[in-house]
Write a structure and sequence with these properties.
- The protein is mainly alpha-helical.
- It has 13 helices and no strands.
- Helix 2 (11-67) crosses helix 4 (88-120) and helix 2 packs antiparallel against helix 6.
- It starts with a helix and ends in a 12-residue tail after the last helix.
Length: 347
């Protein structure tokens, strides 16, 4: 074990732990807020209404990610290269092209989704309105995800993670608890509407946080265009990210074809709790990706290998502890949402 740990216990690892620790704290904090919200909704609305809301919300997340076309994932690759080579023209060209593309595609997906919801969901027992509102929220979610990628590329970690991962779920939870505390009644469509409002606020905060620094970086620079390379790379990364980061949403949507709303709720809560393990990987990756892009730009193979080794060792060790925790306390955690959710333990 000592031989396993020695290669990573150096100054670079300390920096990795410090940087990824902030991101991990944001992700865990956001996940705790999300699970707390789902606990409130489960106790308040019951599994059936919760399942209808979760299905609509999963559609929103998935379509928003598709609308982003992977440019948020490609941003660290090309902006990192531009920073390493002091190529401001490429940075401005990439930001301008990708931003306009995401805006147009997300609004198009919103219109198509809102229109088709009335014809495809009404007969499934859920009612169209949760999905209508979910698709209306797609441009806000897609815009937030894209700007997170831009902020991450410049290593602006607070702007990249606090608005959407912490602020948005905190606002949403506050709104839900306030309505519950005052004895209000709300259905899946109302919950989705509250989610849309929190998305709008998070996007506005993110625009305010990075708009000024970004404009100062690229103002007065003539853009250079490499649209084919940008698009090809972004779409390839989109396909990877769908399975790495959005398998829960894909699974919920597929489950919606076969399961009743209350079964979707049990499936989702069990899956979400288990997925907490992936936050360690996400935090380490998010801190490492900008460094990887810069090392790749100057063909520093030794640096790339060192980054990969440290990140992999740290992720593996942290994930072991998470697995043991879920094994021992999984039934208790599920029982907090209600007795009907304990059935998700094996999942």
């Amino acid at each position: 074990m000592r031989g396993f740990l020695d290669p990573v216990l150096d100054r670079s690892l300390v920096q990795l732990i410090r940087g990824s620790g902030f991101i991990f704290a944001c992700r865990v904090g956001g996940a705790v807020l999300a699970l707390a919200t789902q606990w409130v909704l489960a106790r308040w609305m019951g599994a059936e209404n919760l399942g209808s809301y979760l299905l609509a919300y999963s559609w929103c997340i998935l379509v928003a990610r598709l609308s982003g076309l992977g440019f948020n994932s490609a941003a660290p690759r090309f902006i990192g290269k531009g920073l390493a080579l002091d190529d401001q023209a490429t940075i401005r060209g990439f930001v301008g092209f990708s931003g306009r593309t995401v805006l147009l595609v997300s609004f198009g997906a919103c219109l198509v989704g809102v229109t088709t919801s009335f014809f495809t969901i009404g007969d499934a027992g859920y009612g169209p309105w949760p999905l209508v509102i979910a698709f209306a929220a797609v441009p806000f979610m897609a815009g937030t995800g894209y700007l997170e990628g831009i902020a991450l590329s410049f290593s602006w970690f607070r702007a990249a993670f606090l608005p959407s991962i912490v602020l948005r779920p905190a606002l949403f939870l506050t709104a839900v608890c306030a309505i519950w505390a005052f004895g209000g009644e709300i259905g899946p469509a109302g919950v989705m509407l509250l989610q849309l409002g929190s998305m709008f606020v998070a996007l506005a905060v993110l625009v305010a946080a990075i708009g000024g620094p970004l404009s100062r970086r690229v103002s007065g620079v003539t853009p250079r265009w490499e649209t084919r390379a940008w698009t090809n790379t972004a779409v390839a990364l989109l396909i990877i990210s769908l399975f790495r980061d959005y398998l829960p949403e894909l699974s919920i949507i597929v489950a919606g074809v076969y399961l009743a709303p209350e079964e979707i709720a049990v499936f989702t809560i069990g899956y979400r709790i288990a997925a907490l393990i992936s936050f360690v990987m996400f935090a380490v990756d998010a801190f490492t990706i900008p460094q990887v892009a810069k090392a790749a730009a100057v063909n520093d193979r030794a640096g790339l290998q060192a980054l990969a080794e440290r990140a992999t060792r740290l992720t593996f060790l942290a994930s072991l502890g998470a697995f043991v925790g879920f094994w021992l306390f999984g039934r208790w955690a599920l029982g907090l949402f209600g007795d009907e959710f304990v059935a998700g333990y094996r999942l």
